[in-house]
From TrEMBL:
<dbReference type="InterPro" id="IPR019887">
    <property type="entry name" value="Tscrpt_reg_AsnC/Lrp_C"/>
</dbReference>
<feature type="domain" description="Transcription regulator AsnC/Lrp ligand binding">
    <location>
        <begin position="6"/>
        <end position="75"/>
    </location>
</feature>
<dbReference type="InterPro" id="IPR011008">
    <property type="entry name" value="Dimeric_a/b-barrel"/>
</dbReference>
<protein>
    <submittedName>
        <fullName>AsnC family transcriptional regulator</fullName>
    </submittedName>
</protein>
<dbReference type="Pfam" id="PF01037">
    <property type="entry name" value="AsnC_trans_reg"/>
</dbReference>
Length: 76
């Protein structure tokens, strides 16, 4: 199991819509709107690094309103 945190920048006024979409994904453990450089932090899980890549590039980055993402894989 691969665990990671994905930080997401969104377009103006889209953070709530994006976080609601994230919460519908099975691999998203938690998604929260935050203050700071990024607008959302999502805790995610995947069976492999390849599945994590698919979750981020095929799902999360395709949501309307999602701009830049950054992924931090949990090491321990």
């Amino acid at each position: 199991m691969v665990e990671a945190y994905v930080t997401i920048q969104t377009g103006a006024g889209t953070a709530r819509d994006v976080v609601e979409q994230l919460r519908t994904l099975d691999n998203v453990v938690k998604a929260s709107i935050v203050a700071g450089e990024f607008d959302i932090v999502a805790e995610v899980e995947a069976d492999s690094e390849r599945d994590l890549l698919g979750l981020i590039s095929d799902d999360i980055q395709q949501f309307e309103g999602v701009g830049r993402t950054s992924t931090c894989i949990v090491l321990g």
